Amino acid sequence: MTKTRARGRKTYTPEQREQWAQEREAKLKRLHGEIEDATARIATSDEWVAWLKVASTFHRYSWHNTLLIMVQRPDATRVAGVKTWNKIKRKIVKGSKGIMIFTPRPVFKKDESGRIIEPRVVDFMRFGIGHVFDVADTEGDEIPEQPRPTLLTGEAPEGLWESLVTIANDHDFIVTDDVPTVSDTANGEMDASAKVIRVHPGRDDAQRVKTLIHEIAHMILHRDEYSHRGIAEVEAESVAYLVTANHGLLSAGYTFPYVTGWADGKPEVVAATGERVMKTAHQILDVTKPE
Question: 3-state SS string over the chain?
Answer without folding.
Answer: CCCCEEECCEEECHHHHHHHHHHHHHHHHHHHHHHHHHHHHHHCCHHHHHHHHHHCCCCCCCHHHHHHHHHHCCCCCCEECHHHHHHCCEEECCCCCCEEEEEEEEEECECCCCCECCCCCEEEEEEEEEEEEEHHHEEECCCCCCCCCCCCCCCCCCCHHHHHHHHHHHCCCEEECCCCCCCCCCCEEEECCCCEEEECCCCCHHHHHHHHHHHHHHHHHHCCCCCCHHHHHHHHHHHHHHHHHHCCCCCHHHHHHHHHHHCCCCHHHHHHCHHHHHHHHHHHHHHHCCC
